[in-house]
Amino acid sequence: MSSTVLRLAPPGRSIGIDAARGIALFGMIATHVMPLSDAAGDPVFPAVIAGRAAALFAVLAGVSTVLSTRRVLEAPGARGWTAAAAGLGVRGVFIALIGLLLGSLPSGIAIILVNYGAMFVLAVPLLRAPTWLLGVLAPVWLAAAPVLSFAIRRAWGLSPAYDVPSLATAVDLPWLAQALVLTGYYPVLQWMGYVVLGMFVARLDWHSVRRALGLAAAGGACAVLALSASSLLLSAGGRTALEIATAQRPDALRQALGETSYGITPTDTWWWLTIAGPHSGTPFDMVSTAGIAVAVLGGCGAAALAIEQRWGRTGLAWCPPLSAPGSMPLSIYTAHVVLVSLTADLFCPARALGGGAEFALHACLFVLAAVVWKALIGARGPLEAVVSASVRGASRFALTR
C-alpha cells in the first residue's frame, strides 16, 4: 500500500465518519453563501439543507467525543476518567476560543464553535454513562428540552439573541450564558441532545454494511415520523393559530416554516412548538434533524465499508473530496469563515443571483487544500494538530497526578 493511500485513508480511521463530516461542512457552507429563498420569498434548495447540516455536525461532535476519549478511559481506576475529562475540557476551551475569534470577524455567519466548546465540556459527566442510559437520554432530551426552553423563555420574557458570541460580547458573562443556553442561534439546552445522540451512536456496533444500513433506516424513519407528526398538527389547527399570531408580521410564519428561524421560536403561542422549520429548535425540528443526521452517518458508514470490502483501503483513497475536508473540520470551518469575511464585498451582489460561484470557490479550494495537506503534510489539519497536542498534554498530566 503506497504512502499516499496510507495518508488519505489511514488504517483504523473511519472514512465513513469523515465523509459525513464533509457533507456537514459543505452543507453549512452552502447555507452561508447561498440564498435560502427566491425573489418571491419562496424557499429554494439550500433551505432544504438549512438546520440539517449543522445538526449533523453536532451529532458527529458527539461521536468524536466518544472516539477521542475511548483509549484514555481504559486507564485503571479514576485516572482514566480524569484524563479523558481534562482532555475533553481542553478541547472545548480551545474550540470556544477559536469561535470567539471568528465571531469577531465581519462574516455575517452565526458561528457555532463557542456552543460546541460548551457542549464538549458538558459531555464530560457522560463519558462513562452506560450505553443504555445514553440511548434513553438522547430522544428524551431532543423532545423535552425544546418544551423546557419554551416554558423558561415564556416565563422570563426572553427574546432571541441575534448577536454572535465574540471577544467583544464575551465580556458580558450573563448575556453570553443566556445566549449560549437559551436564546442564541444554537441553544445548548436543546443542542446538547444531538451530542448525547452522537455519543450513543458511537457506542453501538454498526461496523458492518448491514448494520450501518439499519442505522440509516432507523434514522430516516424517525425523521419521517417527526415531519409527518408536525404536518398533521399544523393541519389540525396549528397553522391557523400561527397565522392569527403572526397577522401583523405575515412573513414571520413563512420564514419559520420554510427558510430559517434564529435558533428558537417566539413564545406568544404554544403552537409554535408544532413546527419543524430550520433552526426552530422545536421537538419536531430536533427529532427530524437528528434522524436525518443518523441516516447520513449510517449511509456514509455503509458506503465506506462496502468500498473497503471490495477494494480495500486503496478504494477509500478515492473518497477524499468529502473525507479529507471531513477529517479536519475545525481547520476547514475556520478557513471558510475567514474567507467569507475577506470576500464579502466581492460576492455580496452575486449572492442575490444564487451564490453558486462563491460556493464553488469554497468547495474547490477546501477540497484541494485538504487533499494536498493530507497527502503531503499530515493526517490532521493544522488546527486539529494544535488542539490534539494540547489535549494529549492535558491527558498525560492528569494520568501522572
Descriptive report:
- By secondary structure, this protein is mostly helical.
- 73% of the residues lie in helices and 0% in strands.
- The protein is built from 16 helices and no strands.
- The relative contact order is 0.17.
Task: Give the SSE layout.
Blueprint (H helix, E strand, L loop, with lengths): L2 H6 L6 H19 L11 H5 L2 H22 L5 H25 L9 H10 L8 H26 L16 H11 L4 H16 L5 H37 L4 H10 L23 H34 L3 H7 L2 H23 L4 H21 L5 H19 L1
Helix pairs in contact: 2-4, 2-12, 2-13, 2-14, 2-15, 4-5, 4-9, 4-12, 5-6, 5-16, 6-9, 7-9, 7-12, 10-12, 13-15, 14-15
SSE class: mainly alpha
Mean pLDDT: 89
Low-confidence stretches: none
The first-to-last residue Cα distance is 41 Å
Return Rg in Å.
21 Å
The best one-word shape is globular
Series of secondary-structure elements, N-terminal to C-terminal: HHHHHHHHHHHHHHHH
Could you describe the largest sheet, including whether it forms a barrel?
A: none
What count of helical segments does DSSP give?
A: 16
Approximate strand percentage: under 5%
Task: Give helix % range.
Answer: over 70%
Number of strands: 0
